[in-house]
Amino acid sequence: MYIQVRLLKGWKAPIWYSVLEGSDPLEIGSIVEVPLQNRKSPAVVIALHQILPLSITFIVRSILAVHATPNDEHYQGFIKKVASFYGIDPVYFYKRIRSFFKIGRTVGPPLVIEKQISSSIPILLTDEQKVAIDGIFPALTNGFFEPVLLYGVTGSGKTVVYKELICKVLKEQKVVLYLLPEVSLCLQFQSLLARELPDFLVLGFSSASSLSEKKQVWQSLLEGKSFILVGVHLPILLPISNLGLIIVDEEHEGGFQEKKHPKINSKEIALWRAKEYNIPIILGSATPSVQSLYRAKTLGWKFFELKKRFAGAFPQIIVAHLRENKSKRKNFWVTKELEERIREQLIKKEQTIIFLNRRGYSFFLQCKGCGFTPSCGQCSVSLTYHKELSGNEELRCHYCAFWREMPLVCPECFLSAEHFLKKGIGTQQMVLILQELFPTAVIGRMDADITAQKKLLKQMLIEFEKGAIDILVGTQSITKGYHFPNVTLVGVIWADLQCNLPVFNAHEGAIQQLIQVAGRAGRAEKPGVVVVQTMGDHPLFKYLDETKYLDFYHEEIEMRKLSNYPPFTRFLQLELMHEDSEILEQEAQEVFDYLFELNEKQKLEVMLLGPVKPIVYKISKMEMRHIFLKTTSFEKAFILFFALQTKKIKSKLFLVPTQS
Ligand SMILES: [Zn+2]
Ligand SMILES: [Zn+2]
């Protein structure tokens, strides 16, 4: 037999090899070791042939070894479907998964957060929890596809429901996939599950997992072991023969869509996978996405509500206006309401979370003399001013890795940099302000600058859980699903910052974020308070009380229907990329005209908009243009996209189906 392979690393074209008789069985996607000059190299099988084509006149060498692959009969079909949806080669997935075992870097042992009070006492389930568990059991026992939307207010004990179901699946010798929208959250949940389900194996498979842990995952899959697998994107792409249940927690989060092309959405493909494998899938959230609520209603998904907090009461919400009583306070960004509450917290030895969705020190710098604003040479954005506690000053790009030291003078008018205006506020400045107001408090910070450093992040989570940090200042990283029992005060520094973004789902994103961060307060016996600071009133604020979230949904879905926005229509974005703006400009127009004509000819009735220059139109020297497609079904847009594959253009071209 003969095969064509592609190397996992290096040379991109297919290479022919022969396979000796009696070798381990091979299929497309199998990983093999092949001889290459005088080395050996891992490669993925992309085609199988009984005979060698006549055109091949050179000597074909034979493969050296076959790597074992978990035996999953549905896997090829699943990968093919995902690949075709995103318009990419299936080999991409095989290479991606396996490259982890070859090139992976050891990051150290998995996170172990110190043991809390053991939960060996049997938990008394609430009636709401029982209803949800009993409702999902039949699909687990009888093995059929069933999407479930679990809407549980913050602190309602969704995890208790998950745990019951997980135990059931694991006892049947199957695998549970537990997907979360962010790596830092995976670390916390992995240790939580390991602590609370000590009889079972809990493994992580994410960018924070060590190489040895990834190898253990692969080995367990090969042996068909039963375990819990926690991750963001990667676990859903693994071959798993005994998959029993998929849980997508914090399902409303955008983090399930990958940030790099192809922008695969692991929540969406998890739904396909559950269908392909005939298993139940649970989407859980305290603020379910508008899309999932709509789907649950129109597609007959099972829908369960947990309306009561498992422990503790809902926090008291206080709205404080930043523009009022300015003279009475020491700093503009901390109202009297917030300042006094924080002071009480420190006396009571209870913890505080301060939410501000901007990292760095200030948004940007501007020269007072000439208006000059430093910007990134590789991206079309201004640089963000960063100032460490040590006093070290830096300008950083939030879109690429570029950074530079703070200039001493303005490069345009040579005015001293001391006279630069620092506009807006970021987490670093917030820490300094709080430190000045509360000199004895221990203040921590959690934003993307910290979460990018896995060690620092782990340390921060451990310290905060232990109570060694009094106040934690953070961006959206702290809004997601964390459970810190001693947090009884949450301060939102600037609530209307997110409310008016120019996207169709700005309100949805803003209210979800505010409810989620407010939900970190008062999750145990002690009552919680949330101080929401704002520049102005916003109609959204009437939904800050999370028990009114479904009212928000009803209002929002009416608005979407009137404006014909998703979920009533489908949005897709075609992204063209090239370093040369002239080539890009020209090709974007050509592509648009081509699509426009084809759309007319085939009467697809897709609405085409563009090409437009996005607000951030250049990242890492790569320029971008967008064409938007609005349609009643994805299929129609795909007809257009696939027609483009034959068109010869120099720009890179990607299709991003927008969810929600
Ligand atoms: Zn200047
Ligand atoms: Zn940049």
Write up what this structure looks like.
The structure is a single chain. The chain has 660 residues and is α/β, with parallel strands linked by helices. The strands form 6 sheets. Strands 8-9-7-10-11-6-12 form a 7-stranded parallel β-sheet, sandwiched between helices. The protein has a 6-stranded parallel β-sheet with strand order 13-23-22-14-21-20, with helices on both faces. Strand 8, helix 6 and strand 9 form a beta-alpha-beta unit. Helix 3 (127-142) runs parallel beside helix 4. The structure holds zinc ion (2 copies). Residues 376, 378-379, 397, 399-400, 402 line the site of one zinc ion.
Write the SSE topology.
Blueprint: E1 2-7, E2 15-18, E3 31-36, E4 39-49, E5 65-66, H1 75-86, H2 91-103, H3 127-142, E6 146-152, H4 158-171, E7 175-179, H5 183-196, E8 202-204, H6 211-222, E9 228-231, E10 243-249, H7 266-277, E11 280-285, H8 290-298, E12 302-306, E13 316-321, H9 336-348, E14 351-355, E15 364-367, E16 384-387, E17 393-396, E18 403-405, E19 420-423, H10 427-437, E20 443-446, H11 448-451, H12 454-466, E21 471-474, E22 487-492, H13 506-518, E23 529-534, H14 549-563, E24 570-578, H15 581-601, E25 607-612, E26 618-619, E27 622-631, H16 634-644, E28 652-658
Parallel strand pairs: 6-11, 6-12, 7-9, 7-10, 8-9, 10-11, 13-23, 14-21, 14-22, 20-21, 22-23
Antiparallel strand pairs: 1-2, 1-4, 3-4, 3-5, 15-19, 16-17, 17-18, 24-27, 24-28, 25-27, 26-27
Helix pairs in contact: 3-4
